[in-house]
Structures are given as structure tokens and as C-alpha cells.
Amino acid sequence: MTTTTLLLGGWMAMAAVMALLWNVQRVRRNAGIVDVAWSLGTAVLGLLFAAFAAGLPARRLVIAVMAGVWGLRLGSYLWRRVMREHEDGRYQALRRQWGTRAQRNLFLFFQAQAVWALMFAVPMLIAATSTRTVIGWPDVAGIVIWIVAIGGEAAADRQLDRFRRDPAARGKVCQVGMWRYSRHPNYFFEWLHWWAYVCLGVAAPGWWVTLLAPLVMLVFLFKITGIPATEARALASRGDAYRAYQRTTSVFVPWPPRKGRPA
Q1: Sign for the pseudo-dihedral over CA of 130, 208, 220, 246
Q2: Which residue among 105, 129, 153 closes a domain?
Q3: What DSSP assignment string belongs to 59-85?
Q4: pLDDT of 42-81, one tens digit each?
Q5: Which residue stretches of the chain are H helix?
Q6: pLDDT digits (tens, 9 = 90+) for 224-236
Q7: Is residue 135 part of a domain?
Q8: Are residues 12 and 111 both part of a single domain?
């Protein structure tokens, strides 16, 4: 199966899924399901790409496991949140902003997510076509990065979830575990995860394209859908407590809190 066929088929499948889920959110009034579909869809595309690529079978197996575990963990975590909580504040704000155009714009947004899922699965495809005939140190480095990133993100998500479910923590700022060292450790480890495919893709044709995933993810997190919206909601709900947290705690990379200022 050619690369063009894989990419075109992957996009068409994701576009159809996103159109279906757009109708689901019309009924449920919860657009957060698009995040679940993006993570699971990207993982499924990664699995298919690893299965049909022409690279070393052992490396393709590693990529398939990595993509599958990443997508299943993140997708199931987001699914539990969607089922348990009201619609994420990001999407509520978009509905208010778009007014009568909300459903049309949400359809376009869901279709954009189909393109993004394909885009983030491309590094997996490239890595799976690597011409390196042995598992070498770049592959080992990629596996180590993946283990650290998935473990760190899972721990951060678990700590935040436990904190949010504690009635005594209502209205407070989460500063437990990794959240003491970064205001967004989950975002940091998610970004770190994409460097694994950069390492695995060394020597693959067009390997430099794998660099786009962590670079685009960084732009998304800092400029579009991640940190700005999350911090705006936190400031609105927690006020001075969150401002103090901002003054003492790294925004992204886990780092010891600054001393000499109130936590």
C-alpha cells in the first residue's frame, strides 16, 4: 500500500468519524468528545501506518505498541472526564463567542481535528519506514523518552483528577505532586512524548518531518488551545491564589518552585 493511499484513506476515515461525532455533540451538548476522538483516532492511524509501512518489523511493532498505549491511556482518561463532567470551558466559551454560527463552526472545528489527527500520525508513519536495519541507540532513546513521557503524563493526570474530586480542595489551586513543579505538567509530558518518534525516525526518508509534531504541539499549547485558555479559566475561578501560583511555579517545564514568594 502506497504512502499516498495510507494518508488519503486515513484522512477520509477520520473525516467521517468526526462528522458522526459532530452530530453526537449536537444532541449531548458536549464538544469535549472531539478530544477523545482525536487521541484515539491518531493512535488508530499510527497502528495502521505501522502495520502497512515497509520498515524494519521490530521497529514497526515498537511504534504500534507506543501509539496504541498512548492513545488508549489518553483517550480513556478524556472519555471519563467527558462522561463525568460538564462541557469543558473552552467549548462553552466558543459557543458563546460564535452564537448562532456555533454548530457550523463546530463542524469545521471537528473536521480540522480530523486533519490534525492525520498530521500527528504522520511522524509515526515516517518512523515506521526507517531504513535502519537494526534497533540502535536512537530507537532506544525514543523508547526511553516515550516511557518517561507517558509515565509523567499519567501521573500528572492522576494527581489532578484526585485533587479535583476532593471536596476539601474546591476553589484551591492544585500544587500536589508534579503540579508543584509545573503549572501544566500534563502538557509538558504530552509534548515530550512526540520527540520519541523523532528519535525512531532517524534515517527514514523525510525524517525531518517528524520534527513538526513537537513544534506544532508547542504552538498549540502556548498559542491556541492549551495554556492560555486553561490559565484564563484558572484566574477567573481562583484569582489571587492562582496569581501567586503563577509567580512561583514554572509554566511548562517541571522545575523547583521559586523561593522567597508565597506559595
Answers
A1: positive
A2: 129
A3: HHHHHHHHHHHHHHHHHHHHHHHHHHS
A4: 999 999 999 998 889 999 999 999 999 999 999 999 999 8
A5: 3-28, 33-52, 57-84, 89-98, 102-128, 137-164, 185-193, 195-200, 212-219, 227-238, 240-248
A6: 878 998 898 899 8
A7: no
A8: yes
